[in-house]
Amino acid sequence: MNSNMIKWCSRSWMFAVYFFLYMPIVTLVIYSFNDSQLVTVWSYASMRWYAVLMQDSDLIAAVVLSLKIASFSAIISVFFGILTAFALNRYKRFFGRMLLSSMASAPLVMPDVIVGLSLLLMLVSMQHWLGYPERGLLTILLGHALLGTAYATVVVTSRLREMDGQLDEAAMDLGCHPWQVFSLVTLPLLLPALVSAFLLTFTLSFDDVVLSSFLSGPGYSTLPMVIFSRARLGLNPSINAVATVTIAIVTIAVIASSFYSAQQERRRKREQAQAYSDANT
Amino acid sequence: MSIAPKGNAVCEDLLRVEEVTKIYDGTIKAVDNVSLTVASGEIFALLGGSGCGKSTLLRMIAGFEAPTQGKIFLAGEDITHLPPYQRPINMMFQSYALFPHLTVWDNIAFGLRRDHLPKEQIVARVESMLSLVQLSQYANRKPHQLSGGQQQRVALARSLAKRPKLLLLDEPLGALDKKLRETTQLELVNIIEEVGVTCVLVTHDQEEAMTMASRIAVMSEGHFLQLGSPDDIYEMPNSRQVADFIGNINIFDGIVEEVESDHVIVRSADCSHYVGYGMSGNSGRAVGVALRPEKILLSKEKPAGKYNWCDGEVTEIVYFGAYTTYHLKLNSGKLIKVQTLNNARDLSGNFSLGDRAFAQWSDLAMAVLTQ
């Protein structure tokens, strides 16, 4: 009786949380198929706004720009993330190590508004003195790479930390020059971490609106910026369609990757069990 | 036509460590002025507790650490400042350090590929290594698909594949459970002897050192306490530290009463010891007399003579199957251990708790410890 009660309570609490988290998204998806001009009034189902979306060149340009910035900034972030994580993990004492380790993670805790504002001030004065760089794709890219590097460093560091340090020595012992140790042993073992760092920084860049707003110039609007500005002017149901497409892509990617990793894990477990039963017979 | 080969002088000592010191952070002496030579074909063990410097010494031989002072020679060549990837030395790591992303085959081939050997040669070498460690049918597995013992054999095969002049073993059996250890120990020695490689191993397990090595250096606080064959170190420990570290031992504190060229008499609280060999030093100095539990004979009758026996009360009996350990409380209150072999099925002659018993031993059973 009592335990039933607790069970019932906890279950309804769980549904309440799910409802709170996902109802807005479900509503958004449903309303993206609404034919009505008004966002809040349901008329009948249609693909009208998806058709409008295909015609909306501003929006498509924004998507392309966002994808470009997200992929380049993710690549830059992962690259610098590897370097920073490596320096912090492998070299226990060098000049400025404390500074590097605290500065590398500073953007994680710094409010985006502050980072954006300070970058903007720097760019403005640079432009004043040097006449370069013009605010646009490059500056947004730099801002995102700055933020992404901090996240990538965290991801790569945690992977490096759990790696057996003797692997490096074993490679060197077997005749690897230091750079061969990196390319033949460390890098292949880091690959999963690099993939997740890439995905994380890609997403981070793709949905950033604060830094982009500070750093973009005329003619360079990323997707979140466009959505944001249109939402302020009054919602257009085509925004719902954009959001639904994004959600669909993200969901498919997440499901595919978790399915893949679960399968890998199962295979690994099975092989391990096989090894032990082999050893015992 | 009896011209001695030039430039390839016969080198008895394969490895020579000369007065090597390693200081960390300017103050911590991990290895303190250590010298040693290892002959070709020998299995040499560095034995000691954690933090005694044995691993640091091994890592300096491998090239992962540079000595603060001193030199290391391999086959007459100074390798002190050679990086690890240029030394003809390979190491089997404590964690095995198998590359998790490579198969067993590729793990073993890893070092050979770095030497750019021709492909057929690599294949032949890997296959022969796999059959040496009896893992041919596991060639395509990844390390995580192997049991601990199999991983250990892959690690061994990988470190032998390059045919190193010197093989280093870092706690080779440390990661295995006890039962697996004993069989693996012999297997390991057999393989090493079959290959004929010279070997330096590091261990904290005295049994491991004694069964595997032909010579042992007992280390403590960065220097060697004693260096000798396993039976030297077991039978003739040169200090209390070594005696304590290796196996079970009873140590009687006493004063030297008489020193002759053929014997020494030491007086301790419970008995007089007549040691059947001479030693240097004067009478009157304080020494320890070390006596192994298995060298003591227990009896119910009082032994004849005035030396090398004592009596006490049996306070504890620990039955091990093959042998029994009795704890004997002597008159001074000192506890000693006595081990008797259970070679008869009939245990009626044995002692029970509270019995008075006489312990006696021969005059060559003891080692006099002067430090």
List keywords for this structure.
A: 281 residues, MetI-like fold, globular, B: 371 residues, alpha+beta, Rossmann fold, OB fold (Dihydrolipoamide Acetyltransferase, E2P), six-stranded mixed β-sheet, five-stranded antiparallel β-sheet, 23% helix
Biggest sheet strand order of chain B reads 6-7-8-3-9-10
Classification by helices and strands of chain B: alpha+beta
Oligomer kind: heterodimer
- What is the number of helical segments of chain A per DSSP (H or I, 4+ residues)? 11
Please specify the SSE layout and strand pairing.
The complex is a heterodimer of chains A (281) and B (371).
Chain A: H1 2-31, H2 48-55, H3 57-90, H4 97-109, H5 112-130, H6 137-162, H7 166-173, H8 178-206, H9 210-215, H10 223-233, H11 237-280
Chain B: E1 13-24, E2 28-39, E3 43-47, H1 54-62, E4 69-74, E5 77-78, E6 89-92, H2 104-114, H3 119-132, H4 148-161, E7 166-170, H5 178-195, E8 198-203, H6 206-212, E9 215-220, E10 223-228, H7 230-235, H8 240-245, E11 250-259, E12 264-268, E13 272-275, E14 286-291, E15 297-299, E16 309-319, E17 323-330, E18 335-341, E19 356-360, E20 366-369
Parallel strand pairs in B: 3-8, 3-9, 6-7, 7-8
Antiparallel strand pairs in B: 1-2, 1-4, 4-5, 9-10, 11-12, 11-14, 12-13, 14-20, 15-19, 16-17, 16-19, 17-18
Helix pairs in contact in B: 2-3, 2-4, 3-4, 4-5
Explain this structure.
The complex is a heterodimer of chains A (281) and B (371). In chain A, helix 3 packs across helix 10 and helix 4 (97-109) packs across helix 6. Chain A contains eleven helices and no strands. The model of chain A has no long low-confidence stretch (mean pLDDT 87). Chain A has a domain at 55-241: Orthogonal Bundle (MetI-like fold), CATH 1.10.3720. Helix content of chain A is 81%, strand content 0%. Chain A has 281 residues and is mainly α. Chain B has helices spanning 54-62, 104-114, 119-132, 148-161, 178-195, 206-212, 230-235, 240-245; strands at residues 13-24, 28-39, 43-47, 69-74, 77-78, 89-92, 166-170, 198-203, 215-220, 223-228, 250-259, 264-268, 272-275, 286-291, 297-299, 309-319, 323-330, 335-341, 356-360, 366-369. Chain B is globular, with a radius of gyration of 25 Å. Chain B is α+β, with helices and mostly antiparallel strands and 371 residues long. The longest helix of chain B is centred in the middle third of the chain and has 18 residues, at 178-195. Chain B has two domains: 13-235, 3-Layer(aba) Sandwich (Rossmann fold), CATH 3.40.50; 248-344 and 351-369, Beta Barrel (OB fold (Dihydrolipoamide Acetyltransferase, E2P)). Chain B is built from eight helices and 20 strands. The chains are: A mainly alpha (281), B alpha+beta (371). At the A-B interface, helix 7, helix 8 and helix 11 of A face strand 6, helix 2 and helix 4 of B.
